[in-house]
Predict the 3D structure of the following.
Amino acid sequence: MAIHNQGSAHWEGDIQGKGLISTGSGALKQQPYGFGTRFDGKPGTNPEELIGAAHAACFSMALSLFLKEQGGYTAKSIETTADVVLEKQGGGFAITKIALKSVVELPGADEKKFEEIILNAKANCPVSQVLNAEITLDYDLLN
């Protein structure tokens, strides 16, 4: 079974132009993006921010699944951020690193088992698998 989700973008002008980005669900609808939102801190979004949000969401969901399946755990909460690094390389730019940071509230967890599960989630969430950047993970277990 294949699940299809869609995002779309509209762009006007050269690299200094402007665009609008939307998601099929309507969660984002014609959100502005462009050179200024990507490189100059102007209001709006950018592709790296969206990748970070998608990666954090995917990782958190995968972790909740693996905690249940592999440890019998249900987390009280999982808070994940993804810091996406965009660097100039040659004549262009590349996403070179994504640093995941997850704070997991999981009373009674075995730390060794938890580490095994969280590293499995990092390696096997679908977004981690599709990205070629170096992906690091820092986490805190709150008992």
